[in-house]
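Standup, Tuesday
Yesterday: got the pipeline producing structure tokens again.
Today: sanity-check two examples.
Blockers: none.

Example 1:
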Amino acid sequence: MAYTINRVKKTVTGDLRMVILSCTADAATQNIETGLDRVYGMCCTPVSMATFNSHSMYPNVLAAGTASAGYVSVTGIASGDEFQLVCFGT
């Protein structure tokens, strides 16, 4: 299954691109395509999450541990969890 991901905003801040994604989980593990070539930093803000303290997010990595620029690997999320992901990169 796949997450429901909506791009809220895509803009440029200084010399970095920024994207804000609204995400709803329907599986514990997912690779989120950010639309960036490389993610330099990110911030997760919970909207409605039962698993906020027990999840993991890694930039430029797939859930299988394989490097993949522009993706964010998410694990440990419960189905129905909602969060916003802000990513900075190029």
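Example 2:
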Amino acid sequence: MTTTFTTLGLSEQEYREELINELIRAMRSEGGSPTIHAIAHAVARVTELDHLRMGEQLAEAGIRIAGAAEAAPRGWPMD
């Protein structure tokens, strides 16, 4: 019997890269400063991307979560 493992959601490297990109984007919209708002936005955005990836992976595996939306909305106001 062979056991295989997979990453659920974003990998650590993907999470880090997305966080950097989102923080840069949020800082630019805040005038270039690493404000608390920019940091919070970046963390929330990447967490949402991670959750969306998990949902997609679970759906591909045929796992349905009760109460989950059929199609998650895409895009954020700061995109």
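Quick observation on example 2: The first helix runs from residue 12 to 29. Helices lie at 12-29, 36-60.
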